[in-house]
Amino acid sequence: MPLVTYSALRIALLAACFGLGYLAGLRTWLLLIVATLVAWGLSYVLLRGPRDRAALYLAERAERRASGHRFSAHAESDAAHEDAVVDGAAGGPTVGGAPEHGTPGRGSTSSSTTGPDDR
What we know:
Blueprint: H1 2-23, H2 29-46, H3 48-66, H4 73-89, E1 94-95, E2 98-99
Antiparallel strand pairs: 1-2
Helix pairs in contact: 1-2, 1-3
């Protein structure tokens, strides 16, 4: 969220500079260039706090991804719980410790049938 806040503040600052430039009498492509340069300079001075928070957010996110955690702790625990539920539901009857896949009468074929390449 700090990145969105910082971006929104920079866009607002650009719009304000654009408006002030228009009121000052700039009407050509020069208005866009001057407004952009003034907004860039002002954002460097005025938006130090939001910029630092956005940079810290990005650094923490990069560190978290480098350590192997792509998502937040809540999302990771939610995914682990979902995996456990799915694994528990697929547990059904087993033969020799593995799930029984070739059960006759359930629409599956046995391993002794021939495929289209074996004819």
